[in-house]
Design a protein that fits this description.
The chain is α+β, with helices and mostly antiparallel strands. 37% of the residues lie in helices and 22% in strands. Strands 1, 2, 3, 4, 5, 6, 7, 8, 9, 10, 11, 12 and 17 form a 13-stranded antiparallel sheet that branches. It is flat, with a radius of gyration of 30 Å. The structure holds zinc ion (ZN). The site of zinc ion (ZN) has 8 residues, from helix 11. The site of zinc ion has 8 residues, from helix 11.
Length: 708
């Protein structure tokens, strides 16, 4: 058989779906639709039912996480809101593509890509695509025995059908990818395809197709043939293909678990399958869950309320659960009769009745659309997603419009499911947290259960998120590295009625390494700001910034006399203020950061700490130099703040002259950008350190001593 082979190169590529906000759920290779779109763009036409098959492989050098601007226009106030979003960008991406079709179409494509009608880009990339090869090649199917198994030279998408005929030795990742446009008018409707992603180096054998240069080819089913998912008459199915839907699925699972269901049976890979009869009971099960054991709460609120005629049980019991995520919806909008009429009542049962009426109202809200649902890719859409579906992310089409989303069609089942995100996220101190593992819904559910049911004691000690991190690290043995790098924490912080900040963080391999090596050495006397420390490392902020705040608090106690503690920064400064003395346990932050920086020369830390300590001892011998210690500390802190290496070294030279010593030779390393922070901070900590009472200084003296 003949195939057209393309080799493409681009310096940068970002491949995401419409819900990839905050860089979550990105693909390691472009989805098929992106490549098919590129080919048709080169031909200057649209797909008109031609049939062909495609194989997609590729490789990238590195993933960068960079910021792009996300814009949201507020029509009411006429302001353009901008938000920096972190997105993973594939660097130096090379693609190997094979297309099988009739000879005439292959020739058309070949010609078009050699002389494209438009400049070709891969979606999200800043640079045009470089076409490195276009060639018609001969391909044939071969049977590869186990002992001759081949090693994949590229990362590859392998359609499910091919996996029936081959064996592999590594874990794969299931992706549901957009395949081709069924129609090109807006809103665009895709056909979707399930494929397994294998990383290069995977061993594979069995019945395989190879091109004339020995490259394996993993062709999809023909474009244009309707790809049918197996019918599931007795189930209502949901697809947790993005973090939002995953949080809704987790919410439903939590509710069903509380009701005594065996939830493990309802999940398969990324799919949630709810038996039809159970689904029909869900509108009743949900309020039962929300109202369970709430008699006391209701009573307490009722007794506290000053104006009993205005007391509304619905607002006490349902609104706090759904209000933040489903602002203005049939379940929360105060102007609906079924909510208003509960005013002045004291009844749990009436709240449930109103909830069921809200559900009826919800069902009645539909819009005309002929599209398939964006979320399940299966059922007929009946509405478009708006602010009521998930307020932190979406906008109401009348007041706010955003620039990156086309209207997103949704079916009523998926729309109702989104109301369970409120249960899926874990709420604490006005913030919501969710952990997302892209390839495994059941594991995602389990981790989020840990998040919400951790015992309070553990929370005091380490923080809930921490206990989840421990579990995430344990997943290393079972997951492919692509998945490990794409496990995310989503944090939502409400800042207004209909606005919220969405943060996300993931655990990079370096961070996992630093946690494993060092976390046990976290200073016990700084337990209070442990969660602030976690925030720094999740969000990739430098621990030197953290240390700067801590040392500023300690050194300049006086200037922070009136500090109000409301922000992360002020909490860290306050913790520094509270320190009675500095000790070598603070070197933890330096060591941690240096593991993150992959700096091998960590032994400077201890050396610089002890150099600082020795200089202090020399200063303290003489009353005339003793009082110069504080101004020296101030100047060094200032040099660190300004990142001014010369000023730092000048001050050191003078300081050593003061006690008639020569500056130790190793300080020349501080002039190296890579080492400056490490040496400067460690020295400053040493210069201000005191040993705990009962410990003898002499025991720890010397350049090579282990820190206490
Ligand atoms: Zn749907």
């Amino acid at each position: 058989m003949q195939c057209l082979r393309l080799k493409l190169y681009t310096p940068t590529g970002i491949f995401k779906n419409s819900l990839s906000i905050k860089g979550i759920e990105v693909y390691p290779l472009p989805p098929y639709s992106t490549i098919i779109g590129l080919i048709y763009k080169a031909m200057g036409g649209k797909w008109e039912g031609e049939s062909f098959q495609i194989s997609l492989q590729g490789d990238y050098e590195a993933i960068y996480r960079d910021y792009v601007w996300f814009r949201k226009y507020n029509f009411k106030d006429k302001v353009l809101g901008k938000l920096p979003l972190q997105v993973p960008i594939l660097h130096n991406l090379r693609l190997l593509i094979h297309i099988k079709a009739e000879e005439k179409l292959l020739e058309e494509m070949e010609k078009a890509i050699k002389e494209p009608k438009e400049l070709l880009f891969l979606s999200g990339g800043e640079y045009p695509v470089k076409v490195e090869e276009v060639k018609i090649v001969q391909c044939e199917e071969k049977e590869i025995p186990e002992e001759d198994a081949i090693k994949l030279k590229h990362n590859a998408y392998v359609p499910r059908r091919i996996l029936e005929k081959v064996s592999v030795d590594k874990k794969s990742v299931l992706f549901s990818l957009s395949y081709f446009y069924k129609n090109s008018q807006k809103p665009k409707t895709y056909s979707w395809i399930d494929v397994y992603y294998f990383q290069k180096g995977t061993q594979i054998y069995g019945s395989l197709i190879f091109d004339e240069d020995g490259n394996p080819v993993f062709l999809t089913e023909s474009v244009g043939e309707e790809l049918k998912r197996p019918e599931g008459e007795e189930y209502v199915k949901f697809y947790a293909g993005n973090w939002l839907m995953a949080s809704a699925c987790v919410g439903v699972l939590k509710v069903l678990k509380a009701q005594g269901q065996n939830v493990e049976n309802l999940v398969e890979e990324k799919t949630l399958r709810i038996p039809k009869d159970l689904w029909e009971k869900l509108p009743e099960i949900y309020p039962d869950y929300l109202l369970k054991d709430k008699e006391e709460v209701l009573k307490a609120f009722y007794e506290k309320s000053k104006d009993k005629t205005n007391f509304n049980p619905y607002n006490v019991l349902i609104l706090p659960n759904l209000g933040d995520f489903h602002n203005n919806s049939p379940f929360t909008n105060q102007s609906h009769k079924y909510i208003k009429e509960l005013k002045g009542m004291y009844s749990l049962e009436k709240v449930k009745t109103s909830f069921l009426e809200a559900y009826e109202k919800f069902l009645s809200i539909t819009k005309n659309t002929s599209s398939t649902c964006f979320f399940c890719h299966e059922r007929q859409a009946k509405n478009f997603v708006d602010a009521t579906s998930f307020t932190p992310l979406f906008a109401s089409p009348d007041t706010l419009r955003n620039f990156i989303w086309d209207p997103m069609p949704i079916c009523k089942e998926c729309e109702f499911l989104l109301y369970f995100t409120s249960v899926g996220f874990y709420k604490s101190n006005g913030k919501y947290l969710f952990v997302y593992i892209p390839d495994d819904l059941l594991e995602t559910y389990r981790l989020n259960q840990i998040l919400s049911t951790q015992e309070e004691i553990e929370q005091e000690k380490l923080g809930r998120a921490w206990s989840v991190i421990k579990h995430v690290l344990e997943l290393e043995k079972q997951k492919s590295s692509w998945i490990l790098e794409n496990i995310y924490f989503v944090e939502i912080e409400k800042v207004g009625d209909a606005t919220a900040n969405i943060y996300s963080f993931h655990i990079s391999p370096n961070l996992a390494e630093a946690i494993r090596q060092l976390i046990d050495k976290y200073p016990k006397n700084l337990q209070r700001i442990f969660s602030d420390f976690l925030f720094y490392i999740y969000t990739g902020r430098s621990l030197y910034e953290f240390l700067f705040l801590l040392l500023s608090g300690f050194i300049k106690k006086e200037s922070y006399k009136n500090l109000k503690v409301g922000t992360i920064e002020s909490r860290i400064v306050q913790a520094g203020k509270n320190l009675k003395y500095l000790s070598s346990n603070l070197l933890f932050f330096i060591n941690f950061q240096e593991v993150l920086n992959m700096n091998e020369q960590k032994d400077y830390t201890n050396w610089a700490f002890w150099a600082g300590k020795e200089l202090k001892a020399l200063y303290k011998k003489d009353p005339s130099t003793q009082k110069k210690l504080e101004p020296l500390t101030y100047r060094l802190l200032e040099a660190i703040r300004r990142k001014d290496k010369d000023y730092f070294i000048q001050n050191l030279i003078r300081a050593y002259l003061e006690v008639e010593k020569e500056i130790p030779y190793l300080f020349k390393e501080a002039l190296n950008d890579k080492n400056f922070n490490m040496i400067a901070y460690a020295f400053l900590i040493g210069l201000n350190s005191e040993e705990e009472r009962g410990k003898k200084d002499e025991n720890n003296k010397g350049e090579t001593s282990e820190s206490a």
